[in-house]
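Re: [help] complex structure
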Amino acid sequence: EVQVVDSGGGLVQPGGSLRLSCVTSGFTFTSYTFHWIRQAPGKGLEYVSAISGDGSSVSYADSVRGRFAISRDNSKNTLYLQMGGLRPEDMALYYCAREGRGGHYDFWGQGTLVTVSS
Amino acid sequence: EIVLTQSPDTLSLSPGERATLSCRASQSIRNNFLAWYQQKPGQAPRPLVFAASSRAAGIPDRFSGSGSGADFTLTISRLEPEDFAVYYCQQSGRAPWTFGQGTKVEIK
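Output below.
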């Protein structure tokens, strides 16, 4: 059974840092590209970042480039998102999601909430 | 980036009725890589359709996707009580991948 469990969210002050984690199981982790997607309270979905199966290719939304860093540890089947320079507009529920056929997101974590406030 | 515009913003229907949701792209989507998701309050999005018309695993056949190029549709043939939710389209034809703003299907 495929499982995707994200964690690491919390309350952080503007300008602060936080690292999100996404632990997976039930499939060959290295075979899949993974993404982080966020959803601000009461709003829609927004792509944040993606990383290829071997970690050699990464991409970012313009809104987070230079402040966030995506990575993965294939020995631990785990995805990370290191967030720095956090702003109030970064406050959202962050999901990790597996990229499936046709580029759709076939498995999602339950989401981890990031709150940016002083 | 490709902008996806969903219509209508809200659809008010009764159980048993047919729902037709639209997703229009600002440019043609390569390979028709357009997906649809259902999201209920407090839950992660659930994939329904990928590559415009392929149903995701475990999705009932009352959900169907159609369309090509820049114009796509999600149809729910007969609404069940559990289908009242927000629906999003998403394209993966060109980076950065983008989502529509969502259509809320509510009980009339």
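Chain A touches chain B at residues 35, 44-47, 50, 59, 61-62, 95, 99-106, 108-111 (CB under 8 Å).
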